[in-house]
Amino acid sequence: MTNNKKSQSIIYVNFSPYENAGRILDYLKDTFKYVFLFSFNFHKLGRTRRSNKLYVFRKKKVVQKLNLYQIPVPRKLVFLLLPIRSMLIFVQILLYSSYLKNKYSQIDYYFTVNAFTAWVGLVIKRFGFVKNTVFWVWDYYPPLHDDRIIMFMRKIYWQFDKIGTNSDRLVFLNKRLKELRERTGILKKEIKSSIVPIGTETKFPGKRPQKNSMTLCFIGVLKKSQGLDLVFQNLPKLQKLYHQLRIEIIGSGPDENYFKNLAKNSTAKINFYGFLGENQNKKISTIFSNSSVGIATYVPEKSNVSYYGDPSKIKMYLSFGLPVITTNVFTFSEEIRETKSGVIINYYRKGEFIRAINKINHNYANYQANAKKLAKKYFYKHLYRSMFED
Fold first, then answer.
1. What would the pLDDT profile of 210-246 be if each residue is shown by its tens digit?
2. pLDDT the model gives residue 305
3. Quick one: pLDDT band at residue 144, thresholds 50, 70, 90?
4. How far is CA 89 from CA 32, 93, 239, in A?
5. CB of 342 within 8 A of CB of 187?
6. DSSP helix/strand/coil, 169
7. What CATH superfamily classification does 213-377 receive?
8. CA 164, CA 389: separation in Å to the nearest integer?
9. How would you classify residue 37: left for phi > 0, otherwise alpha for psi between -120 and 50, otherwise beta?
């Protein structure tokens, strides 16, 4: 692997809406001459299903955009039809990588964050379509779930995870992910790896919210495991404490209608913005810049995949200097606690959510300053270099 990236190209494979989590896509566009982004959908996001796409970026600008084939799948059959959808992903990456290789003569890197697509990368390397493969390990799906189909699919996914360790470069989001694979014997001592977490920006607003108001914001996939229920359970008490209360919810997902029905029963001002893509960054910035606290209250369940990940939504809150309320699910939660850039709560203990909001509000300037300081520590342009350097 060489350090001269300005003349090089990279295939990047990820799933919507995470293509630019921690500004990784922005980093790739800044670093490489050509970026070939394969963007696939898992859940339906928004009123209409976004099509799977292949974007060709040249010097940060889109020069080609191709629609990829996808099967419209009802939400109940998402996991049941996963093998068919995965095969379609494999075939399309294989065919279009051949097309890209023929058109652009050389592809230097294949980069992905998913175990199945990491295996795909190893296959297309064997065909000679790419020179180097990089697997940035984002997750671990515990083979524990009430749904037997989901549990079975997770066991299959784990097999691809094992194979993915053969990538030319193996990078983990955190120590928990790495140590898990060491304990299970998947990560052998002779396999070199490193740790690179999700990065942050530093888009700090110039003002703080007024003391007599409270705006809570949430961004992410709308599903119950994300812990958004806590906001709705505490709305009556919050309205009594903060007469100017606003809840900003950015995102879509499988439980969107569930949360919208909860909102109908409340008199609080609750805004659902749906999925806001990259073309609406200004709107997201406006919402965050006028918010008080970022919410990331993940449900601490054994089957919750968030336990092994790195909180991209928390990193996004910090990027805007927003103090965070979260649960002790991520390893990163301890850093939030130690730096006092937010408050860690027990999801099941009544009253802690309200107390956390009041605690932050009563000492907002310090919490905001600490959030900004932590964001600077994880600035994405400094973090990501090592993934593509010798």
1. 667 899 999 988 988 888 999 999 999 999 999 889 9
2. 67
3. low
4. 24, 6, 47
5. no
6. strand
7. Glycogen Phosphorylase B; (3.40.50.2000)
8. 20
9. beta
Q: Which residues contact 172 (CB under 8 A, 6 or more apart)?
A: 136, 137, 178, 193, 194, 195, 196
Of all helices (H) and strands (E), which one includes residue 12? strand 9-16
For the record, the structure tokens of 116 come out as 């199945």
Count of Cβ atoms closer than 10 Å to residue 357 Cβ: 24
CA distance 236 to 329: 26
For residue 180, pLDDT beyond 90: no
- How do residues 165-177 score in pLDDT, each as one tens digit? 999 999 999 998 8
204 closest CA partner among 59, 57, 376: 376
Backbone φ and ψ for 190, nearest 5 degrees, come out as -75, -10
Q: How far apart are CA 293 and CA 364, in angstroms?
A: 10
Question: Among 96-110, 158-172, 207-221, 250-264, where is mean pLDDT lowest?
Answer: 207-221
Structure tokens at 382: 């400094």
Structure confidence at residue 147 as a pLDDT band (50, 70, 90): low
Q: What is the pLDDT of residue 190?
A: 77
Residue 2's pLDDT band (boundaries 50, 70, 90)? very low
Matching residue, tokens 């070199």: 192
Q: Could you tell me the residue ranges of all domains in the chain?
A: 9-196, 213-377
Instruction: Report the topology of domain 9-196.
Output: Rossmann fold (3.40.50)
> 128: burial class by Cβ within 10 Å (0-12, 13-18, 19+)?
exposed
Phi, psi of 347 (to 5 degrees): -55, -35
Mean pLDDT estimate for the chain: 87
In sequence order, what DSSP letters do the residues of 300-360 get, joined into one string? --TT-GGGGS--HHHHHHHHTT--EEEETTSTHHHHHHHHTSEEEE-TTSTTHHHHHHHHH
Phi and psi at 236, nearest 5°, equal -55, -45
Instruction: Write the burial class of residue 217 (CB in 10 Å: 0-12 exposed, 13-18 middle, 19+ buried).
Output: buried
Tokens of 372: 């900004």
The answer to whether 110 and 122 have CB atoms below 8 angstroms apart is no
